[in-house]
Write a structure and sequence with these properties.
The protein has helices spanning 10-23, 36-45, 64-67, 84-90, 104-116, 123-137, 187-193, 240-250, and strands at residues 2-6, 28-33, 51-55, 57-58, 61-62, 76-80, 96-99, 144-149, 152-157, 161-167, 170-175, 180-183, 199-201, 206-209, 213-218, 224-228, 236-238. The protein is an alpha/beta fold and 252 residues long. The chain has 2 domains: 2-137, Response regulator (Rossmann fold), CATH 3.40.50.2300; 144-250, OB fold (Dihydrolipoamide Acetyltransferase, E2P) (Beta Barrel), CATH 2.40.50.1020. Strands 2-1-3-6-7 form a 5-stranded parallel sheet, sandwiched between helices. A 5-stranded antiparallel sheet has the order 12-11-10-14-13, with helices on one face. A hairpin with a 5-residue loop joins strand 15 (213-218) and strand 16. The longest helix has 15 residues, at 123-137. The termini are far apart.
Length: 252
Amino acid sequence: MKVLIIEDERHNAKRLKTILTEIDPEIRVVAILEGINESISWFREQTEPDLIFTDVRLTDGLCFDIFSKVRPNCPIIFTSAFDEYALRAFKVNSIDYLLKPVKKVELEKSIHKFKTNKQAPNLTQVLDDVAAILKQQQKNYRTRFLVPNRDSFYTVRIEEIAYFYTEYRTTRAVMNHKQHHIIPFTMEELEEQLDPEVFFRISRQYLINYKSISHIHNYFNGKLHIVLKPEPSEKIIISRDKSRVFKQWLDR
């Protein structure tokens, strides 16, 4: 069975590939793609796989931007850190939906569903329905966090946050006035909850508010050096591929 993975987080793609081969050694991952344009080009040049796994939100947009250009005839399994309501909505026809981090037992169920379902899905209708559901969900972005403080709680407004960063599996929000707060969400979950017009995932470790950008400098080989305020303890360098998407995001 030939499987295509569309995932912009390499560690997630690698983990998914490993679990798939553990479930069934006959599964062959034909490609791992990271973005919309790359995926569109792949579909136009390569033979269609038997099954597609795709993250809903990619660095350069939603996966539905791919399927608005190309319409594969094979089933699609979505992966994302979306909420339970969307999970129920996505489980239609032979298309499945897996919450991140993907669990082996849930992945096994999806593979079994794919192998036993003989009815071909109406992908055009299903993709349109799912895209509409997602867009409706995305209208309600998070506006604040409830943060514990010893024996009490207080709220932190989104507009007060300069950026998020993760270290040792702990996510922290850095405020405009330099204060830090531990936030009980992964970077993937935050990406789903925050307005993509305001926040951008510049690396695995950093998710930034565009208002926190102090300077942008050219770096070696097409990379960018981003200076944030408040300034983090480490130098932030964006890869060449991510730099292109980042500049497109800023230039709106």
